[in-house]
Amino acid sequence: MLTMKNVIREGHPTLRKVAEPVTLPLTNDEKELAMEMLDFLKNSQDTDIAEKYELRPGVGIAAPQLNVSKRMIAVHVPSDLPEDTAPQFSDILINPRIISHSVKQTCLSEGEGCLSVDREVQGYVPRNKRIRIEYFDTDGNKHNKRLKDFPSIVIQHEIDHLNGIMFFDRIDSDNPMALPKDLEVLGYEEE
Ligand SMILES: CC(C)(C)[C@H](NC(=O)Nc1cc(F)cc(F)c1)C(=O)N(CC(=O)NO)CC1CCCC1
Ligand SMILES: [Zn+2]
User: Fold this and answer.
1) Can 83 be counted among the known catalytic residues?
2) Structure pTM?
3) Cα dist. 76→38, 57, 61, 105, 151 in Å?
4) Out of 158, 184, 190, 191, which one is annotated catalytic?
5) DSSP letters along 6-20, please?
6) From ligand 2's centre to the CA of 86, what distance in Å?
7) ipTM of the assembly?
8) Which ranges constitute the DSSP H helices of the chain?
9) Which residues are annotated as a binding site?
10) Which SS3 state, helix, strand or coil, does residue 167 take?
11) What lines the ligand 1 site, CB under 6 Å?
12) C-alpha 150 – ligand 1 centre gap (Å)
């Protein structure tokens, strides 16, 4: 199973590479890795497993973070509602592409972190509030989905990793708490 020791950290050159598109159909190894990535996220959100293996509670991970420079990401975003066990979004995305997005921007009220960054970085990370994505699943089927708010932020964060972009690249270093106009701050406490 994947643990934090498989996750490469800030400073590793692979995090700054543009990852290669995956050729379909996936090889068995690529399918295996993709499923391990999703399992890592599920494990990391299971209190007992996360504690036992010291996993940070992950909602998304990109293959480059495992030193595999391929355009594959896994996303597992739990439901906002505690009584609801079904995740808001859970899938493995092969060659994901943002095909359109809203003018409106959003950002998390508490900023962002990253499984590959072992430090706090203050500042808002402006992202598109809504995106339409196209991607392939591990069986090679094409999907086209519209996402907004937190799931949209997670996927944009992961697709950035496929292009060698880290979340802090998007923070305005002159004024980290600057809120671009037309941006709506998204807090866990707010809807
Ligand atoms: C960096 C880390 C803090 C581990 C972050 N976790 C996270 O947001 N967990 C979380 C949030 C919830 F709302 C509910 C829940 F169950 C767990 C994360 O996985 N990522 C993904 C990452 O680093 N991918 O490379 C960072 C997030 C920042 C904004 C989007 C993803
Ligand atoms: Zn990250």
Assistant:
1) no
2) 0.96
3) 7, 10, 9, 22, 9
4) 158
5) GS--TT-GGGGSPPB
6) 23
7) 0.98
8) 28-44, 47-53, 149-162
9) 114, 157, 161
10) helix
11) 45, 56-62, 65, 78, 112-115, 153-154, 157-158, 161
12) 10
Q: Tokens for 32, please give them.
A: 């295996």
Distance between CA atoms of residues 65 and 73, nearest Å: 10
| Strand partners of residue 62 | 73
For the stretch 60-92, pLDDT in tens is 999 999 999 999 999 999 998 888 889 999 999
| Residue 22 DSSP one-character state | P
pLDDT tens digits, one per residue of 142-158: 999 999 999 999 999 99
Mean pLDDT by 10 residues, the chain (191 residues): 98 98 98 98 98 98 98 96 90 98 96 98 97 98 98 98 98 92 75 45
Structural domains present in the chain: 4-186 (3.90.45.10)
Ligand 2 centre to CA of 119 (Å) is 12
